[in-house]
Structures are given as C-alpha cells and as structure tokens.
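Researcher: I've got a protein sequence and the SMILES for glutathione. Could you write out the 3D structure of the bound complex as structure tokens? I'd like something to compare against our soaking experiments later this week.
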Amino acid sequence: MITLYDADRCPYCARVRIALAEKGIEYEKVEIDLSDRPAWIYEKNPLGKVPVLEEDAFVLPESAVINEYLEERYPEPSLWPADPGERALARLLVFRFDELSRPYYALRRGDDGAGAGFDSALARLNAVLDARSFLTGREFGLADIAYVPWILRARQRMGVDLDPFPAVEEWAERLAQRAAVADELELVASS
Ligand SMILES: N[C@@H](CCC(=O)N[C@@H](CS)C(=O)NCC(=O)O)C(=O)O
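Model: Sure. Here is the predicted complex with glutathione in place.
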C-alpha cells in the first residue's frame, strides 16, 4: 500500500499526485497542515517537507526522485521517452527546474523586477515548446508533470497572462485535457 504525505496547495505534491493518477496507482493520502506540521513528519523527511511517499516500510521524499521511483517501480504506462537522447533532454529540464521556480517564487513574493524575470522563464519554456510538443519530447511525461503545477498556479492564482507565450498556452490547454491535470486544475480553483 502506498501512502502520500501531501498538501493540496503544494505544487511539488501535485507532481506526485499527477504521476500516481497517470499510472493508475491507488494510494492513501495524508494531508499535512503546512502551517502546523506534525512533529512526526520530520521522521519521514528530516527537512519536514512534503511530498513524502511511503510504500510499506520504504519512505521517500523529494518529488522528482519520487516520480523517478514510481516510473521504475510501475513502468506502465511509461512517462519517459524510450529514446535515450530524448529522455536525457527531458531530465535536463527537470534538473534545471529552478530556472522556473526561482522567478516564480520571486513573483509570488512581489520582488522588484519579478514580472520580467518570470516572463523570461516563460519565454525559455515557449522556445522549448516551439520545437517539440511536450517538455518530455514527442509524448507527455515526467518533464511536463514537473512543470505544469506552477504554470496552473501562475495563471489561476497570480493572474499571469500566457497570451504572449502561445506555445506554453497551447501546451497547458493540451495538458488540461488529461484527467490527472484537470483534477489538479479543480484543486487549484478550490484551495
Ligand atoms: N524539493 C522538494 C520541495 C518540497 C517543498 O518545498 N514542499 C513545501 C510545500 S509546497 C514544504 O513542504 N514546505 C514546508 C517547508 O518549507 O518547511 C520536493 O521537490 O519535494
């Protein structure tokens, strides 16, 4: 049995929720109140952060690592491209995720110049999506899952306009057709 220590509002948790849903894996969800975290969460993750995945006695934090684990443990349907080069480029995007998250959190904090910084990050994603249908490559996969929770929140919660980034906007629309991403959209709207 899998347990996910989760928080509805957490985009890192959303990565894992989407991967679990795409793979059709059943799990139990334990909602953690991030403003009043239980002391025992530090036993599962010394950093005290969610998500944490638990499968029997195996405990694993870190959303990108959890999703790699899920991909290896539950290989079908595959969320990485079969081609090694395509897969490496998708992993590179996940590895360099802070190129999006740093400007995103700067914008959320209201730092000076943060709007322009986030626009630059979106322009870089737009260039990637001009060249391929998905961040993962020719098919949807873990790189898309790694980024989409922040794009949904930027648009819905921070009023970011995706019009100037048409490839990102079309990609977000295409992803929203997937049940796992549509569920996240609902959660963002309601939480
Ligand atoms: N690198 C971690 C980041 C997880 C993270 O920052 N989670 C936030 C919620 S969105 C958290 O637990 N924050 C509590 C804290 O920073 O103490 C991952 O990818 O799982």
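Model: The chain has a mean pLDDT of 97. The chain has nine helices and four strands.
Researcher: Great, I'll pass this along to the crystallography team.
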